[in-house]
Structures are given as C-alpha cells and as structure tokens.
Design goal:
heterodimer; A: mainly beta; six-stranded mixed sheet; five-stranded antiparallel sheet; about 55% strand; B: about 110 residues; mainly beta; seven-stranded mixed sheet; four-stranded antiparallel sheet; 11 strands; globular
C-alpha cells in the first residue's frame, strides 16, 4: 500500500513567519511530487511540483525534496493570512506514462494569524 | 475547454434515488480521476480512467457506484440507491498521464 503521510495539524503561524509543511512517502521509487492548496469550500489547486532532489523556489514558496529520506516539504516565507488553507501533498510513483496516478496525503490545515 | 468542468454543482436527492454526476476534462487530457471528499476530510480516490478504460477502480466504495467514460472525454459517475453516507463533494480531475492533475469545481451531493 503506497502511503503519503503529512504531519498532524492544524498549523498556526503569525503573519510574516515561515510556515513549514512536511510530507513523507512510502514508495521509494516515486518520481514526481506535488503540493496542492485547497481553500475551504474550493477544489485543490496546484502550487508546486518537484521532480529532483534539492530545493525549488517559486516566489514565497520553496519545495524541498530528499528522495533518500523519502521526504518532501513546502516552506512558505513571509506567510500571509491569504495563505490560510489546507495543503495537500501528492506523490506519483512514475515520472510519466500510462496507468500512473497521484497518491494524496490527508492534508494539513495552515492558519496564518494577522 | 479551459478547465475541468463538472455538473451539476449541487445535487440534493432523496435516499434511495439514483444520481449521475458529470465531468468534462481539459481537452487532450487522456487521464481522468474521480475523488470524494467529505466535510473536513482528505481526498478519497474512487476511480481512474486512461482513455475509456479504467485501470484502477479500487476506490469505488460499493457496487452502487459505477463510472464510465466515452470518447476519451466526458465521464459520468453514477450512484445507485443513494444513502446518506454518500453525501460529500465529488471531485473530478484530469491530466496527461502521470503529470499534474487539474481539478474541477466539484459536485456537492446531499442525500436527505
């Protein structure tokens, strides 16, 4: 059973702080990794994808991947109240190709306090 | 279309009735997925289509649930003899195989 685990929440940080969201996965052969954001009452939207070890930065967001430790994280710098949402980690066992699908974690809810 | 569309956006039905939920994926996306999300819960995978075939239907919770996809495009999720525990938001997503999944707005199903 391929599993994606996200550390228990909810997570609350003050405005301007760094929020760190963590995710571990069980399938060592996993190749592609995604972070989705889901606002209350809305559907998930992709915010970051990462495929190779190291950091990937996009504005205030940084995704970090460590395949040896089977660990992927999302850092949000200068957190804003508008970042308050549930963040879903998703993992795909193959880089591409047929018959592959994402496995989602249960998500962690972030609250940014003004 | 520009994004994944789903209809209806809301559906209220009586226990025991059948319902059909529709998903129209992004043009050219060969992979299509159905998920269910209960209030405050994570995504529950239901079924995955690659073209018109379903390599993985392991998440369908019972034989009351079925789905089909025709022409490699539109998909319909059918729930027969609905029960109150079927109440949830049903989300559809589409992608190129193995790549980013893009979600539709969902159908909120309420079974009275």
């Amino acid at each position: 059973q391929k599993e994606v685990e996200q550390n228990s929440g909810p997570l609350s940080v003050p405005e301007g702080a760094i929020a760190s969201l963590n995710c571990t996965y069980s399938d060592r052969g996993s190749q592609s990794f995604f972070w989705y954001r889901q606002y209350s009452g809305k559907s998930p939207e992709l915010i970051m994808s990462i495929y190779s070890n190291g950091d990937k930065e996009d504005g205030r967001f940084t995704a970090q991947l460590n395949k040896a430790s089977q660990y992927v994280s999302l850092l949000i710098r200068d957190s804003q109240p508008s970042d308050s949402a549930t963040y879903l980690c998703a993992v795909n066992p193959r880089y591409t190709g047929a018959n592959s699908k994402l496995t989602f974690g249960k998500g962690i809810t972030l609250s940014v306090r003004p | 279309g520009a994004g994944v569309s789903q209809s209806p956006s809301n559906k209220v039905t009586e226990k025991g009735k059948d319902v059909e939920l529709r998903c129209d994926p992004i043009s050219g996306h060969t992979a299509l997925y159905w998920y269910r999300q209960s209030l405050g819960q994570g995504l529950e995978f239901l079924i995955y289509f690659q073209g018109n075939s379903a390599p993985d239907k392991s998440g369908l919770p019972s034989d009351r649930f079925s789905a089909e996809r025709t022409g490699g495009s539109v998909s319909t999720l059918t729930i027969q003899r609905t029960q109150q525990e079927d109440s949830a938001v049903y989300l559809c997503a589409s992608s190129l195989p193995g790549l980013t999944e893009f979600f539709g707005p969902g159908t909120r199903l309420t079974v009275l």
